[in-house]
Amino acid sequence: MAKIIPTKNGSRRDVIIQSAASLFKEKGYTATSMRDIAETIGVEAPSLYNHIESKKEILNEICFRIARLFTSHLKEVELSAEPILNKIESIIRFHISMMLLEYQNVYISDHEWKHMPEPFLTDFKNQRRNYRSRLAGLLQKGIDKNEVSPINPYVAVLTILSAIGGIESWQVSSKKIEAKSLEENMVKMLIEGLRNHSMVNSDIKTISIQGMQFIE
Amino acid sequence: MAKIIPTKNGSRRDVIIQSAASLFKEKGYTATSMRDIAETIGVEAPSLYNHIESKKEILNEICFRIARLFTSHLKEVELSAEPILNKIESIIRFHISMMLLEYQNVYISDHEWKHMPEPFLTDFKNQRRNYRSRLAGLLQKGIDKNEVSPINPYVAVLTILSAIGGIESWQVSSKKIEAKSLEENMVKMLIEGLRNHSMVNSDIKTISIQGMQFIE
DNA sequence: CAAAAAAACTAATTAGTGTTAGTTTTGGTA
DNA sequence: TACCAAAACTAACACTAATTAGTTTTTTTG
Predict the structure, then answer these.
(1) Which residue stretches of chain A have pLDDT < 70?
(2) Which of A77, A132, B27, B51 has the most CB atoms lying inside 10 A of its own CB?
(3) Taking the C1' atom of D24, which residue's CA lies nearest?
(4) Residue numbers in chain B where pLDDT is lower than 50
């Protein structure tokens, strides 16, 4: 009789969730069956239910854990007394490091959250919206202080988040491209895209719609 | 007996594929059943098979049509005699306009392609890689000409593509934010992120790994 | 070493999957 | 109006899904 072997820093439950995460990432949540998960562990599907409630619970746990990590980092940054662009950079770097350390889980939280059941789905979407609007708030402050180029902050937030989230190849850390180098290139491109190069912006016409700055 | 009503510019087959696309986008390919598709049209599931081969064929058709559109635009741009940064901008704008005009289909081609059956899957992945490496080639040329900031072109390509692909809210064209304004903001941020602001780059140390430029 | 708890197993249930076969209805044309 | 192809239908098949019940095996513990 095969057994789930708990690792040093993880219960049997964690082993299941990690194996599930790996499959959810590769094949998607719906296309992954409990039998698939069980098989990669070397156990029969019903045995999993000694450790977890349901398939959906696994997804919930993955998504909310990641959301919690991002939210708690954002809170720290908000309380710090840095220039806005440094705050943004810190957030960007945190997102990148999450991609390196928790790639599978972040991917699932980005791409498979739709399949969470209610009321978790609504909760998750609210957290997401809240996170983004706080980030947009930071950017707006940067624009007001002329640190950040006058761009629509909501567009900028989505640009940053999806740019980072879309780099599928973060696993390449094993390859020749150093993770650190990757990070520097990415940060540079995004921060330079935001930075206000012309300190006097009288030549750029902007329009304010619903309290947000747009280029006309 | 309900019927599928062909529209002026689309056969019954096209109606099915569009309805399927809408559901694939909302719930994902695997979570969408043939019965779901049939129901939104107002017909029984087996009736669909008078017009299509299989569920997988629908996905193939969506993904490859989108891939074809992108590839053919890229070819045009490559043949044009513009400065590199203008070429890049043209590609960015094309991607954005595709998001506005073909949002559902682009989304599926970006997020659901995994579920295509072989040998289509391999073909699709090859086309994807080819597209991206040609784009990276353009960027490398821009770097060589000092038009583009010395960034890893592969990272830049993924940044651009996923930034655009990740803006989920392209449907907001119905809202107050004008599509045109959205486009200008996005283009600005991405192009400024690429532009070489210091024409003399002797102060930035770069390293070349496998023929690609990195910031050290 | 015996008893209790944890974790595995097999078997079965209920619900849904894509798809096929065979049949009926519909709509246009001779 | 009679015919015929297109397009719908119903019924069913062969699988696969998540999960539950009941039982057996393994591990922990007193």
Answers:
(1) 1, 3-5, 7-10, 169-177, 197-216
(2) A77
(3) A1
(4) 173-174, 199-203
Q: How far apart are the first and last CA of chain A?
A: 68
**H or E stretch covering B109:** helix B103-111
Contact A182 B111 (CB under 8 A): no
Does nucleic acid strand C have an atom less than 7 angstroms from the CB of B12? no
Flag if A189 and B189 touch (Cβ within 8 Å).
no
Query: Choosing among A106, A121, A162, A190, which should be mutated to test the B contact, i.e. which has the most B CBs within 10 A?
Result: A162
- Name the interface residues of B facing A (CB cutoff 8 Å): 27-28, 30-31, 111, 114-115, 149, 151-152, 155-156, 158-163, 165-169, 176-177, 181-182, 184-186, 188-190, 192-195, 197, 207, 209-210, 214-216
Q: Do B111 and A111 touch (CB under 8 A)?
A: yes
Q: Which long-range contacts (CB under 8 A, 24 or more apart) does B65-70 make?
A: B65/B105, B66/B98, B66/B102, B66/B105, B66/B106, B66/B108, B66/B109, B67/B109, B67/B124, B67/B127, B67/B128, B67/B131, B69/B98, B69/B102, B70/B94, B70/B95, B70/B98, B70/B131
For the record, the structure tokens of B127 come out as 């086309």
Residue found under tokens 């098989």:
A39
pLDDT of res. A184: 87
Determine, for residues B155 and A210 on separate chains, whether the beta-carbon distance falls below 8 Å. no
